[in-house]
């Protein structure tokens, strides 16, 4: 199960730390690799579930980024 999935009753209560973000980024990398592999094998319909998880993870990351004050955001050079 995705590290981004949080049951309804626990939403907004989890602390986001660097470890969680790193695991989520690694999970996204794995999801993308699976999606590409399925598509290359002509099994696009089999990768839909992975696309949904990836989408949820990306929305979660975007939500965190939107809620982070600009002074604490790290920039990539």
From TrEMBL:
InterPro entries: SS18_N
UniProt xrefs under Pfam families: SSXT
Domain SS18 N-terminal, residue spans: 13-71
Family: Belongs to the SS18 family.
Name under which the protein is recorded: SS18-like protein 2
Organism of derivation: Willisornis vidua
